Every structure is written in structure tokens, then in C-alpha cells.
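does this look right to u?? shikimate-3-phosphate version
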Amino acid sequence: MESSKIRPMLAGRPDAPLRGEAAVPGDKSISHRALMFGALAVGETRITGLLEGEDVLRTAAAMRALGAETWRDCADWMVAGRGIGGLTAPGDILDMGNSGTAARLLCGILASHDIFSVMTGDASLRKRPMRRVIEPLKACGAVFCARPGDRLPLSIQGARDALPLTYRLPVASAQVKSAVLLAGLNARGITEVEEPEPTRDHSENMLRHFGAAITVGMQGKGRVIRLTGQPELRGADVAVPGDPSSAAFPIVAGLLVPESRLVVTGVGLNPLRTGLFETLREMGAELTIRNQRTEGGESIGDVVVEHTELVAVDVPPGRAPSMIDEYPILAVACALARGTSRLRGLAELRVKESDRLAATAALLRAGGVRVEIEDDDLIIHGGAPAGGGLVETHMDHRLAMSAAVFGQVTAAPMKIDDVSFIDTSFPGFVALMRRLGASITPA
Ligand code: S3P
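got this back:
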């Protein structure tokens, strides 16, 4: 990605309401996991609807570098796994590009394989904290050596006989939870993770689906997950739902552009991912779900959205894990809502693909919105934004997509410095939005 060409864009008010039906690409979290569990399973895994975004393609390349095979069978992706403990040392550095999920989950796998590897990423990923996975994973016997501040590049000598882990998450992070569980797969005994607040449970669901013995118990507001190590994972079929974090962009655009009506089909509705929909409804949004069904163990449905005048909202910190990637686009919705919104407890946004708390505030300010950051809260004074400014996206796909939606409703168009990173999670975003009627043009 780093060498790819910078693509500036202009996002302006469309001539007509947004209309139509669209399906968004596959869920990023589930796509990474399907490739990883497929590589750790015995036999073949067939993945339908894999997200072919840069981030996930990095995971596929890493699995191949570790000895698994991947190939395409028409639209499906196939993985021939090596079995737990069966991965082999990569001949070169593993480059995880822009993807924190790929890097952190892979650390878990590598920690309990007796192989040496070196991992790096792009300029954004090399700034992101890896201590959150290094710290718990060291306890299984792996040796990590990282740049100061526990940043990438890092080297890992995985444990020969990994010990099972018992870990209480200090931050609500599905990435850290998943890294510990992945390490636990090749440790003898029970690996236990306690999460004080529930985070997305795709790893747990998929482990069960591939045949692992895993239990999830409730504990207060949180959960305790117990995984029996060294199961034989069996290759399985995985149907990847549309990514609710990607669906968020056309959905919010449909809500904000007057007289719009859109249908986004096949969207994943795992309850640990739907905090944005709950929040938008609190703001008065007209959102309905049609054809709700279960596919591959995950709930999915078609989301119908109609333009609504929104009112401000106060979002509690406890909702953050269920909508962690949606704050930039929620902030755009708040900028158009009547009244002052407060989004609370956003410390984790500071360590995403960019410092998303600061960058989201800057995005709105570039459009003339009054915004404050108080401790870890974002305060947004809604109204009718003037627009006209330049948004700096800092190699962050979600900022670029949020800016593109924002420009549809600001009085003057918004300039976006670079939309190339959108390909990490939502290839075809600009074309899809244009097909629905949005105005996004090369600058
Ligand atoms: C993800 C978890 C979240 C999210 C990321 C994907 C995952 O990160 O922001 O885009 O697939 O587990 P954290 O677990 O660090 O909050």
C-alpha cells in the first residue's frame, strides 16, 4: 500500500437523493479468522464471500508463507491447512501492511509454534502498540523482540512446548482476546481469557465451528472463555456476511441525504457488532431489518434506511466495543443532528489506524463543525456544516470513507487528501457509493 498512488478526491452534494440496493464486501474480522483457522485446520476450508481487501490479502499471504495453501475456486477461497502445530518457518519477513488485526492475531499463532519469524507493517501499523499482545503471549514461553515502545518490526521465537494462558483483558479488545486464544490452540491444557466487557466473538464462534472445545460463561457484565488446547481443528465451510462496519457508510449516507432510501443487503448483525444501529435509532433513525436469518452461525439481514432528521445523542462508554470502528461515521451523523452529542470513553480510538479521536475531530472541523475533546470524550455541536475544507486521512480507510459521506451533506464540497487506503477494507467503495447516487470525484 505504501508505494501505491495517492488518490485525492472531492466529495460534494449529489444532484438527487441516494436510491437503490447494494451489498457491501465481506466482514473483515471474519475473513481474517477464516483464513487463519483454515490454515490451522486439517483438511480443506471453503470460504464464501471472503473480503478481498488489502488487509485480508496480507493474512492470506502470511498463511501461505507459513506453509498453508490458498487458492480461488470461482468466487470462493480455499485453504488447505497444516493442522495445529504444523505451520513452518517463513523464509522472509511477514508484512502485515495496514492491518492491526492481522498482525495481532498472527502474533498469537506464532507464539505457540516453535518457529522464528519477523513481522512488519506499513507506516501506520508500525506506530501501533503491540505490547497488548506481547505481554500476555510471553507467558506461554514465546520470546518477542520489538522496537522501542513495543512497535513493529518485531521478531518472535515461538515456544517449543507452549504453556496455556490465563489472562484478564486490561482493555476491551477482541484482537487481544483472539491472540491469546490462538496461542492457546497449541498449548497443552486450558487457556482462559476473561473480558470485563464483551467484545466481538467471531473467534469463539469460528473455533466452535472448526471443532474446538470452547465454553463461554457470563461473569458480571463480562465473559470468561475457556479453550481446551491442542484440539484437532477440521476444515469447514465458512460463509462470510457483509461487514456491518462497511455497511455503516452507505447507511449513514442514506440517513443524511434528504429524501434518500437505500437497502444494504446481507449485512452481519452479530449483536456484539450492532452498537451503531442502536445509537442511530436513539437519534431517531428510520432503520428496518428485513430477511433476518442465520448463515454460518452468524445472524445477517438486509438493512433498509430512509432519510431522517436526527437528534443529538449521548453514547455511554460501555457501548464502545460494539461499535468501535464506527465512531468516525457516527461523528459525521452527529454533525448533522439537532443538538450537542457526546460520545464517551473513546481512549481506544487513539491507537487505531490513526489517532482516530484527534483525526475525527479534525475531519469535522475541516467542515466547519464545532467539536471538543474532553478527556476521552468527543463532543459535537450539530447543525448545517459549511464544508469546504481538506480532510487529512492519515492512512486510515475509515476516515476517508467518513469524509466521503460527510461531503454529501456539507454546503461546500469536502476535499479528501487520499482515498487509496479504502482498499484495505472496502474495495469498490467509491464505485458503490456513486452507483447509489453519491458525488465523489477525483480531485
Ligand atoms: C477487530 C477488533 C477491533 C476492531 C478491528 C477488528 C477484530 O480492534 O477495531 O477493526 O477483528 O478483532 P480491537 O480489538 O483492538 O478493539
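The two ends are 20 Å apart (CA to CA). idk if thats expected tbh
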